[in-house]
Amino acid sequence: MHRIARGPVLVLTAALALVAVPAAAEPVAGATEVTGVVTVDGVPLPDAMDGLGSVTVMYWEPSTGERRTTESDPDTGAYALDVPGTAPYYLAANVTPDGVGRESDDLAPVFVGADGTHDYAWQTLAPATDAAATDVTLDLDRSGTVVVKAGDLHQFDDLTLRTIGGRLIDRTSSLPATFSGLVPGRYTLQAWTPWDTIQHPAAPWQTASGGVVVEAGGTTTIVPARSDTTPALRGTVTKGGAPVAGAMVRIDRVTSATHVGDVEWGYSWDKTDSRGRYAVDYGDLLPGRYRIRVESGQTTESSDVYVSLRAGVTTVRDIAAAQQGRLKVVMTAAARKHQSSVTILDSKGVQRGGMTWTSTGAAIDRVPPGTHTLIVHDSVARTYEARRVVITRGKTATVNVNPRKPTVTVSGRVTGPNAARAGVTLVSNRLGELGHRMTRASSTGWYSLRDVVPGADQLLVVKAKHAEVQREMDLVSTRRLDVRLPATSGVITGRLTLGGLPYDGSPGDVWATLDGGGRTERARVNARGQFSFPAGTITAGVDRTLAVTTTDLVSGVPYAVRLLLADRTVRTPGAAGGDLGTIELVVRR
Fold first, then answer.
1. Per the confidence metrics, is the pTM higher than 0.90?
2. Is the Cα dihedral 522, 523, 524, 525 positive or negative?
């Protein structure tokens, strides 16, 4: 159905319909005439669509920016264009020339290249190079519709329809919703639930990327379900084989940052019923790894249970609760003056039990049996005491403490690029929150972390613009630790060419990108095809990928277009830095 002359190709990826383009240009000397007919399902206009009349046909050379438009004949659907034919080009139909001509929601725009394919939401577009073609048929498809019904997604902040490349097509805040006039292809629907609290961060519901298929002239109906993207959890809590009624079951999302309590935002809880059953429904948790804790009374709790929850899956996890122990911490009168912090940690540095203050110290309930580390820290006197304690099931262990050991200081100087005001953080995987300290280096690079509780496996992290250094250590006493940030590269400049000519990025949005090393930087490509990254953009000796992406190559056109270029791997030359010279990126043919 889609017919056009063949030729070498420039690959682009694009999405959706064309809109405003300039009016038709006057013929020029030496131009080639391209003729053809606009059809729908093989039938020439206007017979295919009663009353549609003419549509606009456009010629476009992306490398030179040359664009020419004309109207198809309202009686036959025929068109003719005088075009330069000096570079790879495209032919498009059903665009709106600033109020002149017609555009129909019933028809999907066509954008045709060398292999005759339409360029819809996911298909590949290839430009023709033989401008001498004199019989090019532009066959329009009928547009499609997406209908979204309420399902069990009754509340949400935003419902968006996007191309698989991420281009926004339309949005709404009510259901049911209808998105019409869509180009056939693949799309993604996404909604955000209005949680966004410390307990529940805003959670997305969405189809798989490209999971919404729009067919020409068809209607696609979507019924959102929380089970599409969220998990469910249920189980039974028992003790000695008997169900535990009224127990509190808390489910916390796990993070690797054990120094802040081993959990992050996102939790749910439930009470067991008379048969010991608990349940967390779809939509209450995001997929991920969770820790389950059960609390019932003062001394009964399960050992921590860890579970991985997957979207669309109901996970069953039964829990056998066990009797726990209790720790009584008695402090001297001098120690009680400053209300010292009291923490009990397991072997992984996770804080255990629930603490209450007493007249002589503190009591920690629901501590799992085993060997733990008790740390009492007086931040006013800058002293601490750390000792091992053994907790026995069903019993109370009493410990007398008097924190007199001085805490330590880690200090030093940060040198190298951007050392002034660099962020300095000390993290311990074995001291819980006590092992987390942070500061900033001074204007001359000096830093000092005071009142640090000593311990093994401490990690010093120094961060500055474009650089990061980590130092592992077992911290026993006060020490000086100087850190030198790695040298960064010099200026990186480049040039984008197409067909041997500098690529004209205007009026589009063309960017050069550097990916790798955990960061992405962008620099705009100017109208002469040039781009530049300033000094310090990437770290010396680190490989990065240099490429170019672009959107909206035609002014006002909602196309998400990606130029597939000959990507280059860039290595910064050594610690001395320096200019990498001009790196040329050439569009693939």
1. no
2. negative
Round to the nearest angstrom and report the end-to-end CA distance of the chain: 25
Query: What SS3 state is found at 435?
Result: helix
Contacts 24+ apart (CB under 8 A), 422-425: 422/447, 422/462, 422/463, 422/464, 422/485, 423/461, 423/462, 423/463, 423/464, 424/449, 424/460, 424/461, 424/462, 425/460, 425/461, 425/463
| Extended strands (E) in 332-476 | 341-345, 354-357, 361-367, 370-378, 383-391, 396-401, 405-406, 408-415, 423-428, 436-440, 446-452, 455-464, 467-475
Helices (H) and strands (E) in the chain, counts: 1, 55
Contact 352, 302 (CB under 8 A): no
pLDDT tens for 309-336 read: 988 899 999 998 878 889 999 998 888 8
- Distance, C-alpha 43 to centroid of its chain: 45
- As a whole number of angstroms, the longest Cα–Cα distance in the chain is 101
Burial class (CB in 10 A: 0-12, 13-18, 19+), 401: buried
pLDDT digits (tens, 9 = 90+) for 339-395: 888 989 887 777 777 788 888 899 998 888 899 999 999 989 999 999 999 999 889
Label residue 270 left, alpha or beta by phi (over 0 means left) and psi (-120 to 50 means alpha).
Answer: beta
Q: Provide the pLDDT for residue 140.
A: 82
463/417 Cα distance (integer angstroms): 11
Distance, in Å, from the CA atom of 155 to the CA atom of 150, rounded to the nearest integer, reads 9
Q: What tokens does 367 get?
A: 């501590």
